[in-house]
Amino acid sequence: MSEEIKERFRESQKSHATLLLNTLSPIISLNISLGLDDANREYLDEIKSQNSIILLLQLQSDQNKTLYNYNNMQANKKIIENNFFQREIFDSVTHAKIATLKIYISNTPYEVLLEKNKQSNIEVFAASFLLLIIFIFFLKREFRPLSHLAEEIAKYDPRKNNFTTNRVKRDDEIGVIHNAIVSMVERIESAADENEKTNILLAQQSKMASLGEMLASISHQWKQPLSIISSITIKLKLECELDKLEKSGIETSTTKIAKQLTYMTQTLSDFSNFFKPNKKITSFSVKEAIEGLLFIFGKEYELKNIIINISENRAGRVDNYVNELQQVVLNILNNARDVIVEKELENRNIDIDIRYFSEGVEIKIKDYAGGISTKYLDTIFDAYVTTKKEEKGTGIGLYMSKRLVEESMHGNISVKNVDGGAEFTIILPSIVSQGRESL
Amino acid sequence: MMKIVVILFMIKSLLYSSEYSDVKIAIFAKILPRVILMSSQKERIVDSLNICLIRDELDSSSAKLLADKIYVNYPKSLLKKDINIESVTFNELDKCKSAHLLFMFDTREELVSRVVDFSNSYGVLSAAYNDNYLESGLQLSIFIGRKVTPYINISAINRSNIELDNLLLRISKIYYENR
């Protein structure tokens, strides 16, 4: 029991004693004054019998003569000094001191009360504890399906499809929650399937777009040799019609035609290699990879007066997928090219800065075409987000680029607006570096 | 001759012997002055507490005894007021007009009524040695049972417009005329 309650008990006792003394004093005073000693004795006997907590009640005259004495202190286990109360009795008329009244109040009722309270507290605590245990037991039992479900959810990976929990036949809240979660997981799986299909579709769309680009490039590359071959054949036909066709001329022409055909074949081969899926990690120079890319597609930029400046902090190599990187770089360059052409900008530079570090390479591709609108900056890598006009952009290129960088090449790609242009940063690690130092 | 002397002595003893208890007289000696101070009579006190002892001729010694005991109990006045005690016969009742309390010794019934009427007329507290007189309308006596307590005729008190201290009423036995 708290000290505060004990203190209240003590205060209560004190109040009781004070009340008793206040009640007794005037009557005792008057009885003594009137010489009614018997009345006092009877009165004090009555008070004593009505208050079992009084263990001592003594009335002594001013001349130390005992007028009344009741002493049951031997019934008390311990004497508490604070439980003694004393009051001097004065004559109500003369105000002279005529007697002293002493009283001792027993603690026993309070101690019994305290003991009972303690006992009941223990019982209440024990009962509460038991109820709590039972409650927890039933609670755990009730929530076990949810607990199991939580573990399943924690382990769940939509790509592994490893969710094995089935629906339960329960109508209560637990059952509703359980089935709702199972239903949610089913929807996630369904959405994941849909997403996978979408990704495949996107990849196909991306390939088709690349194919279109490739055909356009091949077409462009082949224009000149086809023109030469056409000229040679026209020349041969004219010489034949004019009977001026000589053996040496035929040989020269066929040699020239063969050379052009070889060039065309080489061109086709280069395109074929570029778009051929290559899942082999190779050690390559980023600068050389980009230059190889420009060898194939460089004409596209030259014709539009776009100058691509490549710089590197040192000659280096990185272990990763070269074709994927070329596709990503080509995609970024094509986007820059389209914007530059669309805006008819004077500054047609695109800077590519390559910086090798101990565990990989950082490639920054920067143009000066005004940058990306802030409303697209956060979503530029999402599917179907494009800053181009509808007929020109599909919103797939950067989405596929991000997937290639992050999922295939284990790198990172980001963009920000710098100095009036957009700056793409690609960070690639050397993902196979066993037995050799990373570049 | 000797026989005559003895008979005369016995006659005197029988005629003048006190039938009043010393103990009871002693209690009255303590109570009476205080009762005045515990009543509304207190407001009438000017210089002294006036107590009138009314008795038959034969009780003069008892009256003197009571007066002496009062003076023994309160030798130097009470609350700085002197205590004046006048012992009068029933025929001299008019001398008690300025008294604050009348105390009556035993007497004949018709004389009791006179004292009661006088008490009511002059608004004076009335007390009697004999508690039976409460039935006749006297206000105060003492009751002797297992203990001694003041005995108050509350109806008589109310009739005379005298007020008593609650504490006095609390320790007293109350006499109700109608019960």
Task: Looking at this protein, list some descriptive labels.
A: 439 residues; alpha+beta; five-stranded mixed sheet; four-stranded antiparallel sheet; 9 helices; 56% helix; B: four-stranded parallel sheet; three-stranded mixed sheet; 21% strand; globular
Q: With helices defined by DSSP (H or I, 4 residues minimum), what is the helix count of chain B?
A: 6
Low-confidence regions of chain B = 12-17
Largest interface: A-B, 16 and 17 residues
Sheet having the most strands of chain B: 4 strands, parallel
Radius of gyration of chain A: 52 Å
Strand arrangement across the biggest beta sheet of chain A: 6-8-9-11-10
N- to C-terminal separation of chain B?
57 Å
H/E series of chain A, N to C?
Answer: HHEEEEHHHEHEEHEEHHEE
Task: Provide an overview of this structure.
The complex is a heterodimer of chains A (439) and B (179). Chain A is built from nine helices and eleven strands. By secondary structure, chain A is α+β, with helices and mostly antiparallel strands. In chain A, the strands form three sheets. A five-stranded mixed sheet of chain A has the order 6-8-9-11-10. In chain A, helix 4 (173-241) runs antiparallel to helix 5. Residues 433-439 of chain A have low confidence and may be disordered. With 179 residues, chain B is α/β, with parallel strands linked by helices. Chain B contains six helices and seven strands; from the N terminus they run H-H-E-H-E-E-H-E-E-E-H-H-E. Chain B has a four-stranded parallel sheet, sandwiched between helices. In chain B, helix 2 packs across helix 3. The longest helix of chain B has 16 residues, at 22-37. Mean pLDDT of chain B is 88; it is low at 12-17. Chains A and B meet through helix 1 and helix 2 of A and helix 2, strand 6 and helix 6 of B.
